[in-house]
Amino acid sequence: MTERSRFAARVRPRVGSRWPLVVLVAAVACGVYDWSGSYRFTAAGGAGVTDLTLSGAEPTLTIDHYGRTTTSPACEAFVSGCTAPVNTVFHTFGATSCPLQTNPPGCLAGAPATVNVSGALASDLSGLVTAIRVGDTKLNPTQVEVTRLSSDCTKDTDGDRIPDCYETNTGVYVSPTNTGTDPFNPDTDGDGISDGDEVLGTVGGLDLPGMGASPVHKNIFLEYDWFDDDAEPTVCGPHSHRPTQEIMDRVAQAFAAGPISNPDGTTGITLIQDWGQGGLFTGGNLVPDADGVIDEGVNGPTFQAIKAANFAPNRQGYFHYVLMPHRYDTNSGSSGQAELPGNDLIVSLYCYGTTTNVANTIMHELGHNLGLHHGGFQDCNYKPNYNSVMNYLYQFDGIDSNCTVPGNGVLSYSIGDRIDLDENNLDENRGTCGSTPWDWNGNSVIETGVAADLNAADTQEGLTCGGLQTVLKDWDDWANLSFTGLADTDFAPLAGKVVVDCDNPPPEARAHR
Fold first, then answer.
1. Global pTM?
2. 67, 220, 227, 238 — which has fewest CB within 10 A?
3. Bond prior to 215 in cis (omega within 30° of 0)
4. Strand partners of residue 52
5. pLDDT tens-digit map of 109-155
6. Cα–chain-centroid distance for residue 191?
7. Is the peptide bond before 341 cis (omega within 30 degrees of 0)?
8. Whole-angstrom Cα distance, residue 14 to residue 86?
9. With contact defined as beta carbons under 8 Å apart, do 130 and 75 qualify?
10. Cα–Cα distance measured from residue 490 to residue 484, given in angstroms and rounded to the nearest whole number
């Protein structure tokens, strides 16, 4: 018996204007149908996704209208698509389309529905589940799309190396055979690393799960290589640029606290950092060097030669590479340099590598790799309402957490909650947050209609801001992080990639001048 005829054998002929219930005796006569598998139920318009895994021979369908649950046989549902029955109240027919029919009382026309199924289901299933009321004119019925995921453990719809039957789409990782990931999305958590790599490790032998990767929570991997030097004996003497545990913790905590959502229901990004601390983390290492400086920046031959000698090829595409020399470009006073977007960055704080300076600069330069500019979406710098470590105003001091403009130590990107500042018409009563006054022109009087150049420290503001006095805008960094830079191949830059010099010396260096 063909699949279509097997379905047809489950229903009696049409009576009047209604389709009858599925005849279970006929189903048994044709053999027990295996319903094992995973299914996706989505309210019309794409809202309310529910993914369910069924097992057994006969599932139960429940449709909840405005919190009111109706279950077989009070409410009938119909599928247009006509591929496979679910149970006695989930009708399908041996045709390419099915007319909508009226149902017994209990279902409300046009009511939003959530569908919960338990039992067991096989064979592709897709279409629209529709519930309507007896006597309804069939206008605007409640519809829920249903899509068969797969019960075939050889099928990998999204190509991430995890069989569909293991990708349970619950958002909870349990094991390699119950991953909580989306079988239709190869990167469920959107961090630029495929689910398969985060669950199984990479085909190149990189043990990402052993390092702490999760397929349902965003991860960022970094390797740190560093110089030891005595480049400026009269200023700081011999020292090492190797990051400390305190530095690593400060950066990791800042990302963990980020208000960025994950499929597992939590927020934040897990930073996985290798500074040669042992175990699986043996990539970070001291780079032998005579003077502690490199002649160029991240795209120069010296940097790339160091990376080629110290960065394992199987980490390409997964790790950001952080080089920590005394200085780059031989004698640059810059605190760092990075690709935007990309995966290479430099942190160079010469004699001033305090925990705060180094941690904040790592987050700043990594922000460039993740697509952020010094003004968030633009290069316009020193904006007092752009409350981010990307802003030179807050790179070392930390962001302003109390609406008083000066930074007070908190390490974070912006969340985009500051008001616009029209430099030609400032209301000092509103400050940067809309409620805390700030004296922009420094005359000790809180006024309205004030004109002032608030970011004059940006010597390029005529170009980067579009003028000397403009409307300055905040930006939600966390909501706009981009993970595409991991795909950057050395010596083959991504289209649109730039290299950003961060000409913002640490405060101790400015004081030493």
1. 0.75
2. 67
3. no
4. 39
5. 333 333 333 322 223 333 334 333 333 333 333 444 444 455 557 88
6. 5
7. yes
8. 19
9. no
10. 14
